[in-house]
Specification:
single chain; 637 residues; alpha+beta; Creatine Kinase, Chain A, domain 2; 2 domains; nine-stranded mixed beta sheet; two-stranded antiparallel sheet; 22 helices; binds glutamic acid; binds magnesium ion; EC 6.3.2.2
Length: 637
């Protein structure tokens, strides 16, 4: 989750004293990069995925599953045996927030050819195998977005008690600091967010009211004044960064051929974020309870919300400069491309001095305000040894602010002195149980970028509508019940292939608005006279591409999964988990997930991930890679 510096971390008070220094030099570093590479045109698309994993341990005798706090050791061995031994090693491993987490990516980025879509799943399998091989007996590597009993007594191995005292990092009633990655960046982030905010973070997730759930559902925390005040009735209360950043996701980063292509993709994909998030929903349970949300987004957002009471608008501004409407982890606030300008309808708080400086340096309004908005934030961690840098050749101060703005999309300038191009990162997706599903979501998003660029598609709607979509996307069963604002005519490039749909829609719909409320099924699969559907567009693109038979077969399988998840023919992971718990013999319809229920759920997830059992309601019948057998390829998707 970003920059890892070594050294002695500074406290919040010390970091704060250097905040202007970090911002000033961060901007100088950005300017150096911008001037050096603003005109660079790379002709090849490159891209890569990131999968985050949890390490779990099964206690079969006592029917318990716990998170294993060995991420640092496992990572060390993976790197030692992998990238440090062989620079061409097929996988790369990185730390993540939880001491029970690791993150894996392909060793080299994928290129622009179609056949590479056929290697994604193999690479993910390799990762799973590589890391699994290092685990102890009864341990497993899981791709689950949120661990259902995270923060419940004894959820870690070894077991640690939470230590809600001032000296600690989280001060949490539930989440012990030992579950945080031991690299000082992570505990410092945790502590400094809390100190900057002036109180513990507050996460309140609505509880799912089942037949026997107490109503109102109230938890009391007499021993903790902050918790007593912050916890809300009918909500699951959480009080630590680990409840958010301790969740896993699936991300994709693209290198565009130029800065303007990157800006175009950034905007277009921003509108897709809530849609794909709802489609990937996989996190219905928190702190041992069934919640009423399906996605982790708002939980992480609250878990790293470092805004003071003044910034949140609860007190008049006195010590702070701005009211800030969102957490550092949230949806984007402005489009970056020229076509996006007229849809920028969210009030943007910016650092005016930085904005003026960027304009003077020849940067256009849209990019200048984007950077000046990111830079309203303070640095959260700073290492004593890393204060004075060479701005022409280093970018740590820029990255410091950039990498702690965790938004749905990230616009990434090249690192200094590298041959990497301008990139955008797509960040909203929840991680799925299997490599097959994760590949399907990744391939879907990458193909979508190909189609956006080839057909010059335009998905833009007012950004405030995208924000409304983000709220809807996290609700329980949003994939089937949610209605999302989406652009009706997406063919501004006037492409003939998709134009037919555009015309059909003009004649049948009279509305003046460029967008309408649509279901995910309509957006993904299309609806006669309303919207062509993203999958039909991808299919027609594929029909016109030269693709080897085997790759085509894999891609069609992936798109079938997405199509069926959108139509409801297949369940999302969130829905499937809900049904699993609802049907568990121990479940008392009281929204409580016991140790034993958690054990059977995670055990089942692990069996599915390792293909030890089928799960047609989640994956369909053909979840195993169906090789071309000489018969007609199925193009019925
Ligand atoms: N785990 C975080 C999430 O679920 C992302 C951390 C990162 O940026 O790598 O969104
Ligand atoms: Mg990560």
């Amino acid at each position: 989750m970003g920059l890892l510096s070594q050294g002695s971390p500074l406290s919040w008070e010390e970091t704060k004293r250097h905040a202007d220094h970090v911002r000033r030099h961060g901007i100088l570093q950005f300017l150096h990069i911008y001037h050096a590479v603003k005109d660079r045109h790379k002709d090849v698309l490159k891209w890569g995925d990131e999968v985050e994993y949890m390490l779990v341990s099964f206690d079969h005798e006592n029917k318990k599953v716990r998170l294993v706090l060995s991420g640092e050791e496992v990572l060390e061995t993976l790197q030692e045996k992998g990238e440090r031994t062989n620079p061409n090693h097929p996988t790369l491993w990185r730390p993540e927030y939880g001491s029970y987490m690791i993150e894996g990516t392909p060793g080299q980025p994928y290129g622009g050819t179609m056949s590479e879509f056929n290697t994604v799943e193999d690479n993910m399998r390799k990762r799973r195998k590589e890391a699994t091989a290092l685990l102890g007996e009864n341990q497993a590597l899981c791709t689950i977005t949120s661990f259902p009993r995270l923060g419940c007594p004894g959820f870690t191995l070894p077991e640690f008690k939470p230590n809600p005292v001032e000296g600690g990092a989280s001060k949490s009633l539930f989440f012990p600091d030992e579950a945080i990655n031991k690299h000082p960046r992570f505990s410092t982030l945790t502590r400094n967010i809390r100190h900057r905010r002036g109180e513990k973070v507050v996460i309140n997730v609505p509880i799912f009211k089942d037949k026997n759930t107490p109503s109102p559902f109230i938890e009391t925390f007499p021993e903790d004044e902050e918790a007593a005040k912050a916890s809300k009735p009918d909500h699951i209360y959480m009080d630590a960064m680990g409840f958010g950043m301790g969740n896993c996701c699936l991300q994709v980063t693209f290198q565009a051929c130029s800065i303007s292509e990157a800006r175009y993709l950034y905007d277009q994909l921003a509108t897709i974020c809530p849609i794909v998030m709802a489609l990937s929903a996989a996190s219905p349970f928190y702190r041992g309870y069934v919640s009423d949300i399906d996605c982790r987004w708002g939980v992480i957002s609250a878990s790293v919300d470092d805004r003071t009471r003044e910034e949140r608008g609860l007190e008049p501004l006195k010590n702070n400069n701005y009211r800030i409407s969102k957490s550092r982890y949230d949806s984007i606030d402005s489009y970056l491309s020229e076509c996006g300008e007229k849809y920028n309808d969210i009030d943007l708080t910016i650092d005016k001095e930085i904005y003026e400086q960027l304009l003077q340096e020849g940067i256009d309004h849209l990019l200048a305000q984007h950077v000046a908005h990111l830079f309203i934030r303070d640095p959260l961690t700073l290492f004593e040894e890393k204060i004075h840098l060479d701005d022409a050749n280093e970018s740590d101060h820029f990255e410091n602010i950039q990498s702690t703005n965790w938004q749905t999309m990230r616009f990434k300038p090249p690192p200094p002195n590298s041959d990497i191009g301008w990139r955008v990162e797509f960040r909203p997706m929840e991680v799925q149980l299997t490599d097959f599903e994760n590949s399907a979501y990744v391939v879907f998003v990458v193909l979508l970028t190909r189609v956006i660029l080839s057909y010059k598609l335009d998905f833009l709607i007012p950004l405030s509508k995208v924000d409304e979509n983000m709220k809807v996307a996290q609700k329980r069963d949003a994939v089937l019940r949610g209605m999302f604002y989406f652009r009706k005519d997406i063919c501004k490039g006037g492409n003939t292939m998709v134009d037919g749909y555009g015309k059909a829609q003009h004649s049948t719909e009279q509305a003046l608005e460029e967008y309408a409320l649509m279901s995910i099924d309509t957006i993904i699969n299309g609806k006669e006279g309303v919207f062509p559907g993203l999958i039909p567009i991808l299919n027609s693109y594929l029909e016109n591409m030269e693709v080897d038979v085997d790759t085509r077969c894999s891609i069609l399988n992936y798109l079938k999964l997405i199509k069926k998840r959108a139509s409801g023919e297949l369940m999302t992971v969130a829905r499937w988990m809900r049904e699993f718990i609802a049907n568990h013999p121990d479940y008392k319809q009281d929204s409580v997930i016991t140790d034993e229920m958690n054990y059977s759920l995670i055990l089942k997830c692990n069996q599915i991930a390792n293909e030890l059992c089928e799960c047609p309601e989640l994956l369909g019948p053909a979840f195993r890679k169906v090789k071309y057998s000489g018969s007609k390829t199925d193009s019925s998707t």
